[in-house]
Amino acid sequence: MAASTALLTDHYELTMLQAALADGAAGRRCTFEVFARRLPEGRRYGVVAGTARVLDAIRDFRFDPDTLDHLRATAQLDQRTLEYLRDYRFTGDVDGYTEGELYFPGSPLLTVTGTFAEAVVLETVVLSILNHDCAIASAAARMVTAARDRRLIEMGSRRTHEDAAVAAARAAYLAGFDATSNLQAGADHGIPTTGTSAHAFTLLHDTEADAFRAQVAALGVGTTLLVDTFDITQGIRTAVEVAGPELGAVRIDSGDLSVLAVQARRQLDDLGCPGTRIVVSGDLDEFALAALAAAPVDGYGVGTSLVTGSGAPTAGLVYKLVDVDGRPVAKRSTSKNTHGGRKIAVRRHRATGTATEEVLGTDVAPPEEPHDRPLQIPMIRGGELVAGLDDLDASREHLRRALVTLPWDGLALSRGEPAIPTTVLPPPRREGTA
Amino acid sequence: MAASTALLTDHYELTMLQAALADGAAGRRCTFEVFARRLPEGRRYGVVAGTARVLDAIRDFRFDPDTLDHLRATAQLDQRTLEYLRDYRFTGDVDGYTEGELYFPGSPLLTVTGTFAEAVVLETVVLSILNHDCAIASAAARMVTAARDRRLIEMGSRRTHEDAAVAAARAAYLAGFDATSNLQAGADHGIPTTGTSAHAFTLLHDTEADAFRAQVAALGVGTTLLVDTFDITQGIRTAVEVAGPELGAVRIDSGDLSVLAVQARRQLDDLGCPGTRIVVSGDLDEFALAALAAAPVDGYGVGTSLVTGSGAPTAGLVYKLVDVDGRPVAKRSTSKNTHGGRKIAVRRHRATGTATEEVLGTDVAPPEEPHDRPLQIPMIRGGELVAGLDDLDASREHLRRALVTLPWDGLALSRGEPAIPTTVLPPPRREGTA
Description:
alpha/beta; 2 domains; 6-stranded parallel sheet; 15 helices; nicotinate phosphoribosyltransferase; homodimer; about 35% helix; 7-stranded antiparallel sheet; TIM Barrel
């Protein structure tokens, strides 16, 4: 595992660096923007997540002697380039959307300004983090909407890369999940962790009743007993026999959950356990959660679909050079929706608070209108991190409030257009260039 | 980032441990198996990858004092459990399929034997690694088949979690990719890295010719020039003017690649550059690669679809308890294809070498037939890693040979059934239990 983030980098960034150092272009003042050309198919909004991790990665982007030796031996870099990397430290500025903010096609999530040399080498690590974390948070936010106010537990660690799992738990919590199964996410990010038992625990024992007795003895009657290892009806009966009417919850992890939840609720009520909660899990996604809205379920465990972005495992964000020494630049291509120049973003709203439009001024802020909200905040100034940007609870609350501003159909799970349109304003006409 | 792998763990593994330590079941001798109930939809085989990373993770699964303090404060574990974790060290056995081996539904990729306590806590980290790496390698192998003998470069780091990117590069190389853009994968796994330049490098300069001159000056005429920033025909003309007839390659990263490749080839030939190669990239997957088979392309860069498993970002592997003190165990459920008892796996073949069947004996090896190949090898014995299991080039070669044994339709990209069926043999009748 990398101690520094410096090699979480595509080789071509260093070859470009070398060529630019040689011809002097490396020192040109550049602005790169991170944005999505489009949202994943049918999605109506994206959720910004991972920015605090990006800022840490920029801080930790240093080339130590071992790394330089490795690059000298394998990457065919000249002495000037190796010396540049040895002294590397990002000294520029970063602005961006706060974590928990919504984004739409073209929204400048992150703006990196500095010399070409210092900004170009950050492309890969910046995109890796944001493409992953935004994809997970965007999927998670839809699940939170679909779950209404029921408890949501993230339990997908086993279905994604072991370190991605920690970041996924963070993104899910930011999006409104209540807890995670992932202990490292608890340690790294202060997220509540939870869990009780798996089918293996029941199978380990000679009988289901033995297993339940062991769990209740260790964790108390308030625990959650997993009742579907053999027969669910018998499992619930045994659970109540062992734990009594104060049993905290039962979990069902397989089968037709909407039918089973109704049966389980009736059985628990009949057994005198009206306070025992029902938790369900097993291949749930936002659509399955929505379908369970009318079922007597108290909480959900969500795994695979969360950590794989529910069909959109990457956010498709790009890191594009938009300005060189004050000159707007863009790839000329009819199919790629790219605009040169640095964007200043505001979100327009009605007087009621409903968002109506994402407006991007080029080089200057868009003309002010009532109920505008500026979207970018300073994150790094002269290489120094601005304090206070890694506050997960604040990001969570920010998202909760932002979702309320969407037009009524913006929260629909069905496929549709972005909830609000994005308008890019042209740069102001320069004096003397009529 | 975690120094130890001990917290890459679901909370419930530790609550199960606590309950099992309290009632004495923790010491029962258990066997857990890792397998896929089914392949991702339409896939015909899976590729084992990540095993060497799993073995390292088991070795590094230790709870240091800080971790124990964190768990004491947050995970409601009793003193006995914390002391067990303090002294934790896996002392059991692991057997499994070698990296680069093919697998099918039910194949026991990894078999972990030890006390319940020592084996249950490994579930999450084992599955995280294998579910990710197998998903990537399985997708990558199809791309390698589709690319035939053309050079394949993995360049998807920016579209996945920053550490997952390194593992993805490793899995892609194992599956037959030639190189990666990811420098950390080069440093960690000795994979060749490559890269030249992005559109940003062209946009940085005042003209495309300036950019090409800078790149050629730094990297030589054998470099690859990216010619689609503005107009491809003009870009190729400029590239040849700058680099001369010895220009190594041009890269096209957008547009209809099959049409553009033909035009570029004709233009390069007309300009007297028959040796200049054409590399294409941009949203390629195995189907796009297959469609380019007749186009005059020399190499491919593949990104997003590789690191997201081309529609199957997780392999869906599970870690199931199958044996407790010699007693086969299994969850009773009609829908889940689970068999109790420890499996001994062989692959049957015709005399010609074509694979015909995956046969799993329960508790004992299947009856021997000619041309059987045993599939499991010892990986950990009494807690000690067997040496020599992390040889990427050997795994690569193993896969290459294994793919040749598949029936003719096993390599088809179209949706289909697993290339060979899996048969699970019942356990032998025990003496005296007629």
